[in-house]
Amino acid sequence: MESNKLEKIIENSPGWLSNFVVVYQKLSTENLDLLATIYHEQVVFIDPIHKVEGFSDLYQYFKNLYQNISYCDFVIDDVLWQDSQASIFWTMSYQHPKLNKGQMVTVLGTSNIKGEGDKVIYHRDYLDLGAMLYEQLPVLGKLTKWIKTNAAKSSVTKDTLPKTTVLKAMISKATTPKNTRSV
User: N or C: which end of the chain has fewer CB within 10 A?
Assistant: First the structure.
């Protein structure tokens, strides 16, 4: 996102949102204490792996996440907000010695956040966990990439079946009683 556009969004947004954007763009292993400036004590944080409730558990979760990475950077690509809710579109780049042969990994994601007072009380991340983690592992990575590639090439879809077959299957399913008993 253009720097000027993001600055304008931050300038016109509620304090909890502008603080969140600023902190995430400079968050690192050396300044995890900044999390206390943006998250409510009773925050609920959800990502594809965990659900964490309460700031102290969230802080520990981040501390564990950042423990083994050698680099992590968030770039906020766009922000949409209304009242006390926002969607944040971001690009995360990180480096972990045991993932992707120690090379940089880039993941696109979206966060749905809700503010209460001057802090974030709810944060849910949506991202491709395969791209972030599974594809970066030696054996599982190849399998995950193979599944993604071959799932996209599936030759049997409802469009390739004769319409009468699809229609018959739908009618059969709709008219078959769920609990049938033999007499």
Answer: C
Between CA 170 and CA 136 the distance in angstroms is: 41
Domains of the chain, CATH where assigned: 3-129 (3.10.450.50), 137-177 (no CATH)
Q: Is 117 left (phi over 0), alpha (psi -120 to 50) or beta?
A: left
Mean pLDDT of all residues in 36-64: 95
pTM of the model: 0.71
Q: How far apart are CA 181 and CA 37, in angstroms?
A: 62
Q: How do residues 105-122 score in pLDDT, each as one tens digit?
A: 888 999 999 999 999 999
Task: Give the integer Cα–Cα distance in Å for 124 and 95.
Answer: 22
